[in-house]
Specification:
By secondary structure, this protein is of the alpha+beta class. The chain has 2 helices and 5 strands; from the N terminus they run H-E-E-E-H-E-E. The structure holds guanosine-5'-monophosphate and zinc ion.
Length: 112
């Protein structure tokens, strides 16, 4: 999508602090970290949110979770939280599917 911030970040048109990249997904540090470790994993192809995952594109979501598992091991994250906000009321502010990976501090439940 031409006017999507995360499409532009995935394409390298807007700079970001890269954690990992392959042909399907891109991971980068959040610009406003909410924990000592806070990065985002996004598909390179535009998907609006979890609500747009279908039979046709769910392989991308599965791949992203494999990448999260791999990166968390490589980064030595013993405990971490994966979050995806869907819709404005839940806190979604960028409408391109992304999974937050947060780690390095005590967390509360339920989330606010
Ligand atoms: P959401 O609020 O949609 O769940 O998450 C969007 C996340 O993207 C937020 O945590 C926000 O800090 C991050 N973000 C927004 N704009 C940028 C940007 O230009 N670069 C980076 N690295 N992160 C961004
Ligand atoms: Zn996009």
């Amino acid at each position: 999508m031409s006017d999507c911030l995360f499409c532009k970040i995935a394409a390298g048109e807007i700079p970001s602090n890269k954690v990992y990249e392959d042909e399907v997904c891109y991971a980068f540090h959040d610009i406003a970290p909410q924990a000592p470790t806070h990065f985002l994993v996004i598909p390179k192809a535009h998907i609006g949110s979890v609500s747009e995952i279908t039979e046709d594109n769910s392989g991308v979501a599965a791949h992203i979770f494999e990448v999260i598992a791999k990166l968390s091991k490589e980064l030595g994250l013993d405990s971490y939280r994966v979050v995806s906000n869907i819709g404005e009321q839940a806190g979604q502010s960028v409408f391109h599917l992304h999974f937050h990976v947060l780690s390095g501090r005590d967390m509360t439940w339920p989330p606010g």
